[in-house]
Known about the structure:
- By secondary structure, this protein is mostly helical.
- The protein contains 9 helices and no strands.
- It has 2 domains: 1-31; 33-160, Phycocyanins (Globin-like, Orthogonal Bundle).
Amino acid sequence: MSVVSQVILNADDELRYPSSGELRTIEDFLSTGQQRLRIATTLAENEKKIVDQASKELWRKRPDFIAPGGNAYGQKQRALCLRDYGWYLRLVTYGVIAGDKDPIESIGLVGVREMYNALDVPVPGMVEAIRCLKEASLGLLSNEEAEAAAPYFDYIIQAMS
């Protein structure tokens, strides 16, 4: 839920106007809107580049994943991994746009560990994949934008760890 929606719902639940502190929170949220949109645009427009770079780095670090018997061995399995990487990158953009981690939690993290365990996908490998996505993504952003985007990747990493 966005900051604006949350402030309105909280005030309405208590039958009051938003407080000056809540209005400052909205003002802060709105003042970072252009930056959040730039970050989301950069990530979306560079998805293929980011996923390719992140996967190459992951395979370099963990060649056992693409070796015979590995979870990403073969074209079909590798394509499924890359699909998931793109999905997590998209989740990050949702969080960045909202300025909140709730979309990441509600859309993408509920039950993720159980799902990967049921599919015999090593969760530590997915954590490493998200770290690689983070590094590939942040490298395309300015320092200030990278600082704003990093916590959304970290949230996914922590939730999977």
